[in-house]
Specification:
The structure holds 2 protein chains of 2 kinds.
Chain A (H helix, E strand, L loop, with lengths): L1 H7 L2 H20 L6 H7 L2 H10 L8 H28 L6 H22 L1 E7 L4 E3 L4 E12 L5 E12 L2 E10 L4 E3 L2 E17 L5 E5 L3 E4 L2 E9 L2 E8 L2 E8 L4 E2 L2 E18 L3 H28 L1
Antiparallel strand pairs in A: 1-14, 2-3, 3-4, 4-5, 6-7, 7-8, 7-14, 9-10, 10-11, 11-12, 13-14
Helix pairs in contact in A: 2-5, 3-4, 5-6, 6-7
Chain B lengths: L4 H26 L8 H23 L7 H23 L5 H18 L18 H29 L3 H38 L7 H19 L8 H24 L8
Helix pairs in contact in B: 1-2, 1-4, 2-3, 3-4, 3-5, 4-5, 5-6, 5-8, 6-7, 7-8
The chains are: A alpha+beta, B mainly alpha.
């Protein structure tokens, strides 16, 4: 036990682990991450591809190759931190808490990252003006307004989604503008501006007079064909007719013209905002960890300066 | 094609830095131990011009102008010149003439890269993802920290190049204290504020994109560097090597990742 303790309290071990993590991470940036196994077999010699997929290098930061050194580093850091604190109490040495704060911060960071890795959830959804959505934990969001601002040269300036937020029918926010870099922070859930898209709708009437709304990206079957509604272009609905897996033709229809068994009653389009909801149990610990690391670095710096001046 | 204000400032600063470099070189050839009395003022003037260029751009885009590669390089070169000036002022003879010269050359190199036609120089307002003061802290503190890494890098090269014991000791000390100042600033800027910005913009602290990974790799190397100081037998040579590797990685994180690897940091 003593030998193990001595092994883990060693600064040399820390240096070795830091350099090992460095070397492994460098290799990971040279191999594109998160691809299908086929990708590696297509792009690398067979032996290398087998090594990459076999060792988990294709998703290195989730692989044992990375996690085991991280675990050793965690133990090393934890033992060093305890050893420093205990040693200081025994020897009544000068109080140097800066590095300890940094070390504790890093330990908390690793624990927080673990919470995030195992418990973080996110989902993207699209809303048009007036649309509502039920989110986890009893939250309900309604889009009041959505604007897209551009600079004079046409580059995007901002996307602003103004929402009303409720929880279990209690009003939380009557009107909050979610922007890029300005998320809506609810307890346990954060909503981010994520993307946008245009949704085209063709209002169709069948022979019995029934109305049906068809959104872009949707399709319907007609006799032997599939008619795919790809959107509105220059005031006309654009359909692709497919026969089985073969593309047959493109059809353009204005309002009041027939398409398949239907007649087009009306064409309309509207902008949708893409919002991302994130639930991250690691948020608070990671935030605390970053604060600890920053405070620890500042304290170390101040103490060192003081020591320099005194010597 | 007209030049904008910040480009003119960069050209003038470049000229001042060349002048400073020549002066330093002339003094070095005469006597390697005495600092010349003028070049640091030229460095200060160059820094002032470069930072004035950034201020003018900031006023025009109504945001702190550190949101593209050109602005980053100009800022980096300016801060490097400023750090060399402050070292000369505050550390005096502890800053060796060769270190000052090496730093000046690197500042010049950064400006030379900024002048490349491959780097757009138009004054443009930032896209939504970049409109965050966390980003400003992230970028500025990263470069301020890295400017101190330049001092350590040059001192480490000179340390490995040899010389008498006293001189090597001075260089070792300079290399260590420079990282001692740069490391907390770099950690706060590159990693902490970078993570906070990512959290505010995208809802995730970290996404292991190549630039993030390389910033972490750089940080690991400098962390190892600082810990070699605690082990007597590892001090000196290994420290110097780590400082050199650390700076090489700093530069690779800035340039190499953009051009050789792809990721989230496509804008700079």
């Amino acid at each position: 036990m003593d030998a193990l303790y001595r092994f883990f309290k060693s600064v040399r071990l820390a240096i070795v682990l830091l350099l090992l993590l460095t070397a492994l991470s460098i290799l990971a940036t040279l191999v594109p991450q998160g691809q299908q196994p086929a990708y590696y077999f297509h792009n690398y010699p067979p032996l290398l591809a087998r090594l990459i997929t076999g060792l988990g290098y294709s998703s290195f930061f989730k692989s044992w190759l990375f996690l085991v050194p991280c675990l050793l580093f965690f133990v090393n850091l934890a033992v060093c931190t305890v050893d420093r604190l205990v040693g200081r109490l025994k020897r009544k040495a000068r109080r140097r808490y800066g590095p300890d704060l940094v070390h504790v911060g890093l330990l908390v960071l690793i624990v927080g990252a673990l919470f995030t890795a195992t418990g973080r959830q996110e989902g993207t959804f699209f809303l048009g003006r007036g649309d509502s959505i039920d989110l986890p934990m009893g939250y309900r969001l309604r889009l009041l307004d959505y604007t897209y601002q551009q600079y004079e040269d046409g580059r995007p300036r901002d996307w602003i989604s103004t929402v009303e937020a409720r929880r279990d029918e209690g009003l939380l926010e009557a009107s909050y503008s979610i922007e890029v870099n300005r998320p809506l922070r609810l307890r346990g859930l954060k909503i981010y501006q994520s993307s946008f898209k245009r949704e085209d709708t063709a209002l169709l009437r069948d022979q019995s007079g029934q109305l049906e709304a068809l959104q872009s990206g949707k399709h319907f079957q007609w006799e032997e064909s599939i008619l795919f509604f790809s959107g509105i272009d220059a005031g006309q609905a654009v359909f692709e007719r497919w026969q089985g897996r073969t593309f047959a033709e493109e059809l353009r229809r204005a309002a009041s013209q027939p398409i398949g068994p239907y007649t087009i009653v009306e064409l309309s389009s509207r902008d949708l905002t893409g919002l991302k909801a994130v639930k991250d149990p690691g948020f608070a610990p990671v935030l605390a960890a970053l604060a600890l690391v920053t405070a620890g670095l500042a304290l170390t710096f101040i103490q060192k300066r003081k020591d320099e001046r005194e010597s | 094609m007209g030049y904008n204000f910040s480009q003119i400032m960069a050209v003038l600063a470049f000229a001042l830095l060349v002048l400073a470099g020549i002066l330093q070189a002339a003094y070095l050839l005469r006597n390697r131990r005495v600092l010349d009395p003028v070049s640091h003022w030229l460095l200060a003037a160059a820094a002032a011009l470069l930072l004035a260029g950034i201020v003018e751009r900031s006023l025009r885009i109504r945001f702190v102008a550190v949101t593209n590669t050109f602005e980053s390089l100009v800022f980096f070169a300016g801060v490097t010149a400023l750090v060399l000036f402050l070292y000369r002022l505050l550390a005096g003879e502890r800053l060796l003439p060769l270190v000052s010269f090496g730093g000046t050359v690197i500042s010049l190199a950064l400006l030379a890269i900024a002048s490349s036609p491959a780097i757009p120089k138009e004054v443009q307002s930032p896209i939504p993802a970049l409109q965050s003061y966390w980003l400003v802290l992230h970028v500025t503190l990263s470069f301020i920290g890295e400017s101190f890494f330049i001092v350590s890098f040059v001192a480490s090269i000179l340390y490995l190049a040899g010389g008498d014991e006293e001189r090597r000791k001075k260089l070792d000390r300079l290399s260590y204290t420079a990282v001692g100042i740069g490391y907390p600033i770099f950690t706060a800027g590159a990693l902490v504020f970078g993570a906070v910005w990512a959290q505010t913009a995208w809802g995730t602290w970290w996404s292991w994109d190549p630039k993030e990974t390389w910033a972490l790799i750089t940080w690991l190397v400098y962390t190892a560097f600082l810990h070699t100081r605690l082990v007597k037998r590892l001090r000196g040579r290994l420290s110097a090597i780590l400082s050199i590797v650390g700076f090489a990685f700093t530069i690779f994180t800035f340039f190499g990742v953009n051009y050789l690897l792809s990721g989230l940091h496509s804008y700079g």
